[in-house]
Design goal:
Number of strands: 12
Mean pLDDT: 79
Order of helices and strands: EHEHEHEHEHHHHEHEEHEEHEE
Oligomer: single chain
Number of helices: 11
Strand content: 15-25%
């Protein structure tokens, strides 16, 4: 299995041969040493992929090429290829259909080449670790007995660590009882640190225990049935990858908060970016992951601004994740893009969920603050703090608005690069 930084082998299936020339030139120019193959017939593309699975496959769909989409499930079953589907008319329904077929992303055929290349490269690198994990699981299936012993040791270490944490917490409480004459400010600071430590332990424990359960299931199944069914193996692999990704996002958010607090401003990689396309892709991704919410994007055909697309996508992802999390009963979520005045864009995310108490609203962007601390909801209270820092680095503002029965977070950004103030 290749582990190159960029795709090395690219397959383009273009039945109408309208997009493949410019795609091939763009990929070859962007990635040094990249080998690009183009096919018009789905059967030829599938045969080529079976001989040597490509790192990246771009499949163009259209009304005159209905058989092209049949290749997507076969490419997906191979497990070695990142699949990008291009559709003539991009919509949420079309994106969901492509994702169900097995595509990793569904983009509009009109997506600018630079953006398509950047997104394809990011998808390839993001899934590289997933494919490596799947390959490792297949290679080590015969050694699950040893892995089970390691897992039991790790579980014992986890239990010992939890016991140590409880002892440390008990010792800290005893020490605090001896310092009851300390000022109220110091007592509140200690209480805040304890609450944060407990929340971190809780947030880390949940994915760790889930990882342990999946690994335990894999061990039990392997001991009773050496040849795991592909469906069960895939389910276990997905569970491991999802929980590992959850740990990665949590650690990344902690690191980002530390950088904002201690390292100062981050140099941004600003490029002209179509914010409508960026928002459309994220809305489609979040919609595909939730069945109880209905996401709507209201935007003009195009809205270009000089931004760091990766950082702005982080901001929108945080707002969408919060909208879903704090609407546990489901309901509508509306994303809107507009140009309120020349030189500025406005992005809003509105939900009709739990809302925020009036007394707590001034603290929404405070680090480690949680608007519903008593609710059984995940999170460390860092998302809005990080989002505010990223927006300010773009020279913009972020605020919370509360129309009747709804919660709305509004981001305003200059369309041209501007120093953060």
């Amino acid at each position: 299995m290749r582990t190159l930084e960029h795709p090395h082998a690219v397959l383009i299936l273009d039945p109408e041969a309208t997009a493949s020339p410019r795609l091939a030139r763009a990929f070859a120019a962007a990635w040094a040493g990249c080998v690009v193959h183009t096919d018009r017939a789905p059967a030829d593309a599938l045969a080529r992929a079976q001989q040597e699975p490509p790192d990246l496959a771009v499949v163009t769909l259209g009304p005159t090429a209905p058989t092209a989409e049949r290749v997507i499930p076969d490419l997906h079953r191979g497990g070695e290829t990142t699949i990008v589907a291009l559709t003539p008319r991009h919509s949420t329904a079309e994106a969901q259909r492509c994702l169900r077929l097995g595509a990793d992303a569904c983009l509009a055929a009109s997506t600018p080449l630079a953006q398509l290349t950047m997104l394809s490269d990011a998808l390839y690198r993001a899934h590289l670790d997933t494919r490596r994990l799947a390959a490792d699981l297949r290679r080590t299936q015969g050694q699950l007995g040893q892995a089970a012993e390691s897992l039991r040791t790790a579980q014992g270490s986890l239990a010992a660590a939890e016991h140590t944490i409880r002892q440390l917490q008990a010792a800290r409480r005893a020490q605090e009882q001896l310092t009851t004459r300390a000022g109220e400010g110091e007592r509140e600071a200690r209480a805040g640190r304890r609450a944060f430590a407990a929340q971190v332990v809780h947030e880390l424990r949940t994915p760790l225990m889930t990882l342990s359960l999946y690994a335990g299931l894999a061990t039990a199944r392997a001991e009773s049935t050496p040849d795991l069914a592909p469906e069960l193996r895939a389910q276990i692999e997905r569970g491991l990858v999802q929980q590992a990704a959850a740990l990665g996002r949590l650690i990344a958010q902690l690191a980002e908060a530390a950088r904002v607090e201690h390292a100062g401003p981050l140099p941004l990689e600003r490029r002209p970016t179509d914010l409508v396309e960026l928002a459309r892709d994220l809305v489609a991704t979040v919609q595909a992951a939730t069945g109880s919410h209905s996401l709507t994007l209201r935007a003009p055909g195009e809205l270009v601004a000089e931004v760091d697309a990766w950082r702005l996508a982080q901001v929108l992802q945080i707002l969408l994740d919060n909208a879903v999390k704090y609407s546990p009963a489901g309901g509508p979520i509306t994303v809107e893009l507009a140009r309120p005045q020349p030189g500025w864009v406005r992005l809003t995310v509105t939900d009709t969920g739990m809302g925020v108490a009036v007394a707590l609203r001034p603290h929404l962007f405070t680090p480690y603050f949680r608007g519903h601390p008593g609710a059984a909801l995940d999170g460390l209270g860092l998302g809005l703090y990080v989002a505010q820092a990223l927006v300010r680095e773009h020279g913009g503002t972020i605020s919370a608005e509360f129309p009747p029965g709804a919660t709305c977070f509004a981001v305003e950004l200059p369309t041209a690069a501007r120093t953060a103030g």
